[in-house]
Amino acid sequence: MVKVLGINGSPRPYGNSVQALRLALRAAELEGAEVELVNLYEYDVKPCMGCVSDDIMACTYPCPINDDMVKLYPKIIEADGLIISSPIYWFGVSGLLKNLIDRLTVLENMIYVDGKSWLEGKVVGFIALGNDEGAAALISNLMIVANSFGMVIPPWALAYYIGEGNALEESKLLLDAANVGRAVAIMSQILKGLRKSPEVWYRADDSYKEFIKTIANDIVKEVYDSIYS
Question: How many structural domains does the chain have?
């Protein structure tokens, strides 16, 4: 079994970012992945101090900063795939997520210690949502960073939504988010030799649409109940 870790970069526990991420993780589960959701707002992640600029060997695992990354690093190291979801903050990721990404440098920089980035070969997908433009800029930046980390980006590994209201009421976002989870799970399994490439990477058949819509409705209800219970 492969492990897929969902990282919610939104400070809002009821927002579109976490709802779309939960849908993606459900879709990954349907492909046989073990999943876990991390809400960054529950962790104290301090900004990177840029140790690598002083001495490249000063930026090696474990990071010298004493905070909750000590809890998050093992989850990321053990994961076969990551799904990163962020609200759009001025054409980029949230501050919470930016701190995490910068702090992952310590894993990438292990290439100078044991010859390999500790993120190399991990599969990654992306979700971006907001009320204003910036999804393409956000996801493009994350893709460049992930590729520079040595991570694997499968087909159909992005989903985005621009607009007000509940994003899970938008049918295209539902399918895109679900297929992000599906693609990350499948590629993780392929890289571990657990399965062959699928006939299609992006599922859009009617039965899948209806099933994903049912899951989305359940997620919306779960979030609503958690707020008003």
Answer: 1
What is the domain extent for residue 74? 3-228
Q: Which residues of 28-37 are buried (b: 16+ CB within 10 A; e: fewer)?
A: bebbebebeb
- Total Cβ atoms within 10 A of residue 163: 14
Q: Is 59 helix (H, G, I), strand (E, B) or coil?
A: coil
pLDDT tens figures, 54-105: 898 989 999 999 999 999 999 999 999 999 999 999 999 999 999 999 999 9
Q: Which two tokens stand for residue 145?
A: 């960073």
Strands (E), the chain: 3-8, 34-39, 81-87, 123-130, 158-162
Question: What CATH number does the domain containing 62 carry?
Answer: 3.40.50.360
Task: For 192-218, write each residue's pLDDT tens digit.
Answer: 999 999 989 999 999 999 999 999 988
Question: 125 by DSSP, 3-state: which?
Answer: strand
